[in-house]
């Protein structure tokens, strides 16, 4: 077994960390407070090729894989971005670049990937619905064939980045859930031209006021006979579940990488404060009640990092990685939350002050226990598929 990262990943770590460390916590606080995309960082990442890592070289990318994307995201988060980093690597590099590179037709790859690599085209992903929630099998947004197009009707919720994106990777039903046999059949994944649909009045969206991760808006999306050309299907009609797993597993792996990086950043800030704060004549970090919980979280972070890298490594080799992706997401999200909670305790009353970034870490870390999949569903999956226990849902 070899636990050394490949040279490509080491180069990514150094390059992305160098960009991240040029931006201090005041910058990220401003982006969060102003609810704006970290455009300056994004442009640096694009220009350096750090968002096109998983796009094949013939389409303008670096020809690397999900492992390199995970390392990039982890180090953007750890270098200063924290939770704000996750969507910067999910929305376009993963949902767009990774998915089209693996499941797009040659014509789709030629059309979309060079633009994604150059930063000229951005994407988002839409699966969640108000009634279905985490039960993706039961989504009701449907696409009906109409000549050379599909007409799409339905509603999505918690769709992040719509306001920036050019195209939406949209999960629809072409066979209703009640009629599909097996139930995982009847899914079709479409590439929707957002600006065209908005101009036609068939797609509208409404931002949802939310607690954290305010550098990207999350939206309700309404689809009213959105017209999508039939050549914009990713994968095969009615067989989109295979495409879907190659979206959801990378999403969980990258969410885990963001959790690992966020936990590392939060731990650093907590430890810096614990070394400096000395109200009783010695640094509070000298007290075991302060030091031991931080040390335990460090152990959690290292374990989560190993599983994240393993899951990405498996995905890059087209090997099953569902269990590893779920375990990585579960452990990394918990490490990020424990780090934020402990940093709050270490800072005492000052954690409540917006002068420190702890409150932002606290808000951003909590949602990771619920998205992209709730930890209860992860545990149910592990119980059933890894432990052989009866299905609980």
- CATH architecture of the largest domain, please? Up-down Bundle
Remind me, CATH topology of the largest domain? Butyryl-CoA Dehydrogenase, subunit A, domain 3
The CATH superfamily of the largest domain is Butyryl-CoA Dehydrogenase, subunit A, domain 3
User: Beta-strand level of the residues, as a percent range?
Assistant: 5-15%
**What letter string, H or E per element, gives the SSE order?**
HHHHHHEEEEEHEEEHHHHH
Major sheet: 4 strands, mixed
Estimate percent helicity.
40-55%
Low-pLDDT runs of 5+ residues are none
What's the total number of strands?
8
Number of helices: 12
What is the end-to-end distance? 37 Å
CATH class of the largest domain: Mainly Alpha
What is the overall shape? Answer: globular
Radius of gyration: 21 Å
Question: Looking at the chains present, what oligomeric state does this protein adopt?
Answer: single chain
Strand order of the largest sheet: 1-4-5-8
Summed up, the domain count is: 3
Summed up:
Keywords: FAD, Flavoprotein, Oxidoreductase. By secondary structure, the protein is α+β, with helices and mostly antiparallel strands.
Topology (elements, then pairings):
Layout: H1 7-20, H2 25-34, H3 39-47, H4 66-81, H5 85-103, H6 106-117, E1 123-126, E2 142-146, E3 149-160, E4 167-173, E5 187-193, H7 194-200, E6 203-207, E7 218-229, E8 233-234, H8 241-276, H9 288-316, H10 322-347, H11 358-367, H12 375-385
Parallel strand pairs: 1-4
Antiparallel strand pairs: 2-3, 3-7, 4-5, 5-8, 6-7
Helix pairs in contact: 1-4, 4-5, 4-8, 4-9, 5-6, 5-8, 8-9, 8-10, 9-10, 10-11, 10-12
């Amino acid at each position: 077994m070899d636990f050394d990262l490949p040279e490509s990943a080491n180069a990514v770590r150094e390059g992305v960390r160098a960009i991240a460390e040029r931006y201090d916590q005041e910058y990220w606080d401003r982006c969060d407070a102003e609810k704006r995309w970290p455009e300056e960082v994004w442009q640096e990442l694009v220009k350096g090729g750090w968002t096109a890592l998983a796009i094949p070289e013939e389409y303008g990318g670096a020809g690397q894989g999900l492992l390199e994307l995970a390392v990039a995201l982890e180090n953007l988060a750890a270098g200063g971005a924290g939770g704000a980093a996750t969507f910067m690597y999910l929305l376009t590099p993963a949902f767009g670049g990774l998915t089209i590179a693996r499941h797009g037709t040659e014509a789709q790859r030629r059309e979309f990937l060079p633009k994604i690599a150059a930063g000229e085209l951005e994407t988002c992903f839409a699966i969640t619905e108000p009634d279905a929630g985490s039960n993706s099998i039961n989504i009701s947004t449907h696409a009906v064939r109409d000549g050379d197009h599909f007409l799409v009707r339905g509603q999505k919720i918690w769709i992040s980045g719509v306001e920036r994106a050019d195209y939406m990777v949209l999960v629809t039903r072409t066979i209703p859930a009640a009629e599909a046999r097996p139930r995982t059949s009847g899914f079709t994944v479409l590439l929707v031209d957002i600006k065209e649909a908005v101009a036609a009045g068939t797609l509208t969206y409404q931002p949802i006021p939310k607690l954290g991760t305010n550098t990207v808006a999350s939206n309700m999306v309404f689809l009213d006979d959105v017209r999508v050309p039939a050549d914009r299907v990713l994968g095969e009609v009615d067989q989109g579940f295979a495409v879907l797993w190659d979206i959801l597993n990378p999403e969980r792996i990258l969410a885990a990488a963001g959790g690992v990086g966020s936990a590392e950043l939060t731990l650093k800030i907590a430890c810096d404060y614990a070394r400096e704060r000395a109200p009783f004549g010695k640094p509070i970090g000298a007290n075991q009640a302060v030091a031991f919980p931080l040390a335990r979280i460090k152990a959690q972070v290292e374990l989560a990092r190993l599983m994240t890298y393993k899951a990405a490594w498996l995905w890059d080799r087209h090997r099953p990685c569902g269990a590893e992706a779920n375990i990585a997401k579960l452990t990394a999200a918990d490490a990020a939350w424990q780090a934020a909670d402990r940093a709050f305790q270490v800072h005492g009353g000052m954690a409540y002050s917006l002068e420190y970034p702890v409150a932002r870490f606290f808000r951003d870390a909590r949602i990771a226990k619920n998205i992209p999949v709730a930890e209860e569903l992860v545990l149910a999956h592990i119980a059933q598929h890894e432990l052989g226990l009866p299905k609980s849902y």
